[in-house]
Epoxyqueuosine reductase
Amino acid sequence: MTLPRSENANYRELARQIKDWAREDGFADARISRAALPPEAEQRLARWLEKGYHGEMDYMARHGVLRLRPAELVPGTLSVISVRMNYWPAEAAPAEAVLADGSRAYISRYALGRDYHKVLRNRLQRLAEKVTQAVGQHGYRVFTDSAPVAEVALAAQAGMGWRGKHTLLLNRSEGSLFFLGEILTDLPLPEDASEAGHCGRCTRCIEVCPTGAIVAPYEVDARRCISYLTIELKGPIPEPLRPLIGNRVYGCDDCQLVCPWNRFAVPTREGDFAVRHGLDNSTLAELFTWTEETFRLRMAGSPIWRIGYEKWLSNLAIGLGNAPSTPEVLAALALRRNHPSALVREHVAWALARHDGRGKEGAAG
């Protein structure tokens, strides 16, 4: 079907087709929102920034309300097509089992395969090109966690789910284990109805957060969030938070693991998100022995690549400091005691002192 680009075009039928094309191309769902969010969204963002909850993520303050105004980000935008793609790899070692084994490295399950930015961006571009084939040239841009776009707010407004108390998008039929992406377009597509929230009185995500980062329902202090500490923070992780991180070396899934809605989560069918290099069940000591060359080779095409080798080692050092005091763990730490990076040396010294302290406590007992 080819639609004329005119005021009389059947945009309702086009919207239906866009959703069909999206599902055919591997997306779990697609919904459409108007290119504007209510004033309350801007007020909430302003309060969050005033509290400093964004930490070192200066871009959050720099872009400010622009992330809530798609029509200003991309002039001419009338509609936002939101999509989601499931990422949980069914073949991965059980998350709870890895978290319970202090000698193993826990990596957030979204990061075990290929970089989702590339996967979703390519699929979104393909979807946008199908729309072009149907209506002719039109203005659009594709995004996936790559620009100041309020993905969760726009997806919720489009009825794809609701913002949970952990601030992630929740869907009644498939939980929250998915990526989001958007196409901002100048086509006047009919918008989908939003959905009311269904968290009720449940506070499991708030209670389980290892560092107490969910400071109130629907409010996260990123400065305490393990995902921020292990990915966004450039300097040393604050010492009081280090023991609370446990063996989580890249991101954190705890709030999603306990969410009742994720009993409906659907494993991914996307081959690009399959586990690579045994990252679902590797020991901390094994990963800590990687050379920079090994890191570059194995993390090429992975979202972990962007934190760099130095941050990778410093995160692992924290995990090793929290691990059981085995010969393997102590030998791995000793190997990096004099690492050229001040950040790595600081975290290694903390980890060794932590093990030494345990030894003295044991001797005293």
About this structure: Residues 1-5 have pLDDT under 50 and may be disordered.
